[in-house]
Amino acid sequence: MKPGTLTDLINKTGQRSREGGRKLSGYNFAFIDEGTKKEIRRKILKAVAIPGHQVPFGSRELPIARGWGTGGLQITLSIIGPDDILKVIDQGCDGSVNAINIKKFVNRVAGVKTTTDTREATVIQTRHRIPEEKMTPDQILVLQVPYPEALRTIEPSEAETRRMHAEGDYSRMWLYLYEDIVEFSEISIGARYPVMVNKRYIMDPSPIPRWDIPRLDMAETLYLFGAGREKRIYAIPPHTVVEPLEFEDFKFRTEDFKGAKCERCGGQGTFLDEIMDDETGKRIYRCSDTGYCDKNISGRIALSGNTNKKEAHRFYDSLGFKKHGYSSMVEDTGEDNE
Ligand SMILES: [Zn+2]
Known about the structure:
By secondary structure, the protein is α/β, with parallel strands linked by helices. It has helices spanning 5-13, 34-49, 70-79, 97-110, 158-167, 171-184, 290-304, 309-318, and strands at residues 15-16, 22-23, 55-56, 85-90, 113-114, 123-127, 140-144, 195-197, 201-203, 222-227, 232-236, 242-244, 272-276, 283-287, 322-324, 327-329. A hairpin with a 6-residue loop joins β13 (272-276) and β14 (283-287). α2 crosses α3. The chain binds zinc ion. Zinc ion (ZN) binds next to β14 and α7.
């Protein structure tokens, strides 16, 4: 097949969807068959009913390989409707190859509109990040999960981890954390920091940074987790207590970016990617959440250009910025990160 042929075929034969995008014909809406969607939706309901509990499901074959987000994609395809607006991010980035291809795929098979704006999206599929902007009860965040079992580091047997979850027998997990502190003077887990959901199940939050962990607690948004290769679905419903595992005298901490700011938008108080500048050899930082970074830049332009000032101010206010003379700013007290 010549390069570009498939794209041409898709664009030419697709029927127009409600939003004017082209939908691929000859396939069921959102690719997977209705029987499978029904199963996945039932499993999602069970997962929502038992927060943090892993529900097995019959993970299906998709046109992408397992390990590339098939769990998240199956959830997205099962819950998405023609009027939904989809955003897909990979490590916070809207523009990575994986994110773009998943977005394109869902767009072709469901005809849904896509966006990079966190506020505009109704369904957000993500790998390794939770968006910086606060999400609402009308939105659903679908997380791609490589390893759903938080206890796997301490116990290789699936039968045994299931027993441990059933009996709430988490003593070995606590011991593991304690030994970590003894050896390294801190809990050395970065991403995949284990959390206690609804004071009942220890859960793997997928490899999000510690920075994102507090966003899981008492959130307004439904979080759905899908592991395609491991065939598991689990959920954190809105207003659920989610606590990172910590000791009374050894508290959970997020990453500390004190003093650092995004080289692109100048923003502080977001999760930053550390990059080595090839030319200067210096360490620079950029917002991991590209959608937020873009908005921050456009907000500034609107402010300095004196156009759409009211709207820009409203946007900054909604993010918790405070008025400071003619501009808006966030106090960097370092307390936000605790
Ligand atoms: Zn930025």
